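Subject: sequence -> structure tokens, single chain

Hey, anyone have a minute? Need the predicted structure for the following. Not urgent.
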Amino acid sequence: MSFLSKTGRWFAKENSRRISFIVVFIIVAVVGGRITHLYDVSKKPKVVVEQSIVEGDNALNIGRYAEAERIFAAEFKGNSKNNAAEWGVKIAKVRQALLMPTFKADLDVLYQEDPDDSYVNFFMGEYYVANQQFDKAMLYYDRAIALNSRLAEAHFKLAELYEQQGLSEATTVELLKAIDIAPINKYRNKLGTLYFKQKRYETAIKEFGKNQAYPLSALESAMIYWQLQYLSQALSYQKQALDLLENEELMTKPENQEPWYFEIAPKKVIRLSELNQKIAYAYYGLSVSFYLQSDAVRAENAVQKLPELSPVQQRDLKLLVAADLESLVKANGGFLDQVEAYKLRYLEAPSKEQK
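Reply:
Had a minute. Here:
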């Protein structure tokens, strides 16, 4: 065999190997790229699912149940196989029926499905609080927190239960835990109110001051300044509250959609859930500050700016303002005559519907 013949064969073999290598490389690249694409596609929805579940749980953890239901329902609509989203919808929906006759029966069904769910145990606690069975409530609250130590709303409700029992230190501890988990306005305001009741005025004002865009904290600060006889400062905070309440964009935020609760006597709570009620409460406070400064004209003008309320809403609001004034007189008897005159003029007079 000649040298040229051998050389030709060698080149033929090398070319064949190269071509085979190139073909294999192309196949691997194509297949590998396809696998990578499929992996990324399969992975991407999972990340989205996880994010939506986290957002829903975050809403549940701070007691925003309508928001949680919306998040979970949107996820479940897009992925009907997402069991976590389906469960989240059930949880959020049942809690919004807390005051309905069917609440306990519906909750029992969920408890049978998963007795170790932290939210189910927490809602059980709320049910027993509403029915004045505090020992049972405490057991379920403790169980919920043991299952989920990051459940801020459970710490908050446990603090309220401790407060009802007169356990001031335990109340403070649970509120601080709730704030550490979720430093939202509602929790900070509750802590500020607790300090207010303890006459720790400076500490209370500092806590309220952390809620820059929360009108209730501004109104609570104003009441502290009433008791300290600093009426100009009270007026400043009440005007600040009204500016916030009349800011439409700000009032659409979830924290400003939540009701305000005021305990005016043992087992007697006034609930202001609508924006017009909150605005009316702020204008009443402004009116009182003007009246205490002997400015009857501006006191009257503030009352004239009250938004329209139903007879029931008017009654509840007057009871609330009267309770605030009684608290003021207990702390500072020097305002007694002015407070009695104000109550007679604005809180005991017949409403427009009654005239």
